[in-house]
Amino acid sequence: EARIEIERLSGAMRPNDYQHVPATHHHRIINTGATPLRYFEFVCFDPTAPAIVRPEDAHLVKE
What is the C-alpha to C-alpha distance for residues 57 and 33, in angstroms, rounded to an integer? Predict the structure, then answer.
């Protein structure tokens, strides 16, 4: 089991739970169990949104 905090909200997460977190929200996942925690985190970007590209990330950008 894990605990998730999104801004001022928090709650428990159990195996196979899913939680969408908007990219603009600070969040963290905390292991509350005795066994190692495994989770997948995907970061998805809106291709239509304006973005600032850092020089070290320029190789990731397609025109």
Answer: 36
Contact 44, 20 (CB under 8 A): no
Per-10-residue mean pLDDT for the chain, 63 residues long? 93 90 87 88 74 82 70
Task: List, as own/partner pairs, every contact residues 36-42 make where C-beta atoms lie below 8 angstroms and the sequence separation is at least 24, other chains included.
Answer: 37/2, 39/2
Three-class secondary structure of residue 55 per DSSP: helix
In the chain, where are the structural domains located? 2-60
Q: Which two tokens stand for residue 53?
A: 């590209």
Please tell me the pTM assigned to this model: 0.60
